[in-house]
Amino acid sequence: MDSAPAEQGRREDAASQAARERVPRVDPYGFERPEDFDYASYEEFFSSYLVILTRRAIKWSKLLKGSNSVQKSMKVKRYIRKGVPLEHRARVWMGVSGAQAQMEQNPGYYHRLLKEERNDSLEEAIRTDMNRTFPENVKFRKTADPCLQKTLHNVLLAYGRHNQGVGYCQGMNFIAGYLILITKNEEESFWLLDALVGRILPDYYSPAMLGLKTDQEVLGELVRMKIPAVAELMEGHGVLWTLVVSRWFICLFIDILPVEKIFSEPGSLSMTTITKLRESCRAKLLTQG
Questions:
Q1: Residue partners of 201: CB distance under 8 A and separation at least 6
Q2: pLDDT tens-digit series, residues 57-113
Q3: For the purposes of burial, counting CB atoms within 10 Å of the CB of 88, is it exposed (0-12), middle (13-18) or buried (19 or more)?
Q4: For residue range 197-236, what is the model confidence (pLDDT) as tens digits?
Q5: How much is the pTM?
């Protein structure tokens, strides 16, 4: 009997076990790797990708050196599209989103919000989602020291008091939780959440949720344009897009996409095309009432 396949299998198992011992079980963000995680393939990929990450980090360090703020420019935009290194991400996001300016213009505001009168219904809604937020992340578990659930609760509570028209919506826990992982700072996470929910996507979490519904329709149109076979399959089974994708949009894809892909800019489609699609889809929704 040919023992070559068996020998090859043993070598692959040994390589996989060696990679498992070298690669940490928990990633840099605190997420546990799943049981079926392919450690050997990850190590092979990361060994080559690390060169790109290092080169990118050096460019960002040079760009940010000697400056306390991030100035918008075509160069910064190009760099952001290629990816912001984790060590610079909080600073860059705070700068380009306007969150840094808002925080500096409102010193002490966040902490004053935390001291306001209790709102039992708001606090109960937030508390309900605490254990549902990133259960696979070791930093959000009650056994963690410190446990980020308290930080998350504070950020969501302050935002609910700050933007009473929105209060708290399911999905915001994942957004705030992710911002906390990136910034490692309660107040900065609050101001970034305000930039996203209050200014960048103001009609996502409003009572009518028109912005969210519009973008769901845009996705449907893009699927019809780019992969019509999927659109035909969905329509053939009478499946509504909202049933499939609403959760993706409510949490801004944070618990759907790989961590490094979150808040990336669009790829091949121009913003002009996307804007036109949004306008037509919004008009369609408005005529439907």
A1: 211, 252
A2: 999 999 998 877 888 889 988 898 888 999 999 999 999 999 999 999 999 999 999
A3: middle
A4: 999 988 888 888 888 888 888 888 888 888 889 889 888 9
A5: 0.85
